[in-house]
Design goal:
- With 276 residues, the protein is α/β, with parallel strands linked by helices.
- The protein has one domain: TIM Barrel, CATH 3.20.20.140.
- Strand 6, helix 8 and strand 7 form a beta-alpha-beta unit.
- Helix 5 packs parallel to helix 6.
Length: 276
């Protein structure tokens, strides 16, 4: 079975800046909670890929947070086929530049998806400022990754990514594929209903250890949402090998292929590989 990490970071100097030299307030507490200190030093991309493969990860979805990081990841993906690039788009410079960035990424860079984190910008996921971005993603048939779970930055409300808001987006953009980052953790089982209700809504369980999430999520991943839930480490938050072993233990073996491999392909690409 080929394992795909549905959400990961590279330990390059550029991508580590928000965690180290340019420490962002919304990342600060994660370093302690996930005991990340020994994983926040630069590591050559070749070495990180070897490290991931040793654990069993053959490909990794690498998400950017801004244009500079997107360019960096796209260039690395050209050299390393193990990297699946995802563009990071925000509203720092306004709506028009964000739309232009989505257009550029979809037409030139051929990224797999667009990553949006509403709580970074202290706005709700269904804010009218973000709706044009969702419309462009739907137009270009690019999935959007939305941070839809609790976070540890107390400078912004946790509710910016509430499942109710994701449900509204899914209703208003019915053909848009939505990947809810970190599986809606912290909001209870309502997010499971959103994923069950909408054919194009998926749950990324990255950075989540099974023993710390509600049992309803494990049950859903094992049964009625087995084709909607996907594996991820959010490395360097959690080590590849640790996360794989924890989830293999939590899930039935007959859903491993869905969780670790097929669901990620189905979520990211318009023509998923048939799987029954």
């Amino acid at each position: 079975m080929e394992i795909i990490d549905g959400r990961s970071r590279l330990r390059t100097e550029q991508l580590l800046r928000p965690w180290t030299s340019d420490l962002k307030p919304y990342f600060k507490e994660y370093i302690t909670k996930y005991k990340m200190h020994d994983r926040l030093t630069p590591l050559a991309v070749d070495e990180q890929i070897k490290h991931a493969k040793k654990a069993g990860v053959e490909k990794m979805v690498v998400c950017a947070g801004n244009r500079e990081d997107t360019e960096h990841i796209v260039e690395l993906a050209k050299k390393h086929h193990e990297i699946i690039p995802v563009a990071g788009v925000n509203l720092t410079n306004g709506i028009l530049p964000a739309l232009q960035e989505i257009q550029r990424c979809c037409e030139e860079n051929k990224v797999a998806a667009i990553n949006i984190s509403p709580f970074f910008e202290k706005i709700n996921a269904n804010d009218k400022m973000l709706y044009p971005l969702y419309g462009y993603c739907e137009l270009y048939k690019k999935p959007v990754m939305i941070h839809g779970s609790m976070h540890y930055w107390r400078g912004a409300y946790m509710w910016h990514g509430h499942p109710q808001l994701i449900d509204e987006i899914a209703v208003d953009f019915p053909s848009l594929k939505i990947i809810i980052s970190h599986g809606g953790n912290g909001f209870g089982p309502s997010v499971l209903a959103v994923a069950q209700r909408h054919p194009n809504v998926y749950l990324d369980f990255s950075a989540l250890r099974p023993k710390y999430i509600a049992p309803e999520f494990i049950q859903a991943a094992n049964t009625y949402l087995k084709k909607k839930c996907m594996f991820g480490t959010d490395y360097p938050l959690i080590e590849y090998s640790e996360q794989i072993e924890l989830w293999k233990y939590a899930l039935r073996e007959n859903v491993w292929e869905f969780f670790f491999h097929q669901n990620i392909l189905n979520a990211l690409y318009n023509d998923p590989i048939p799987y029954e």
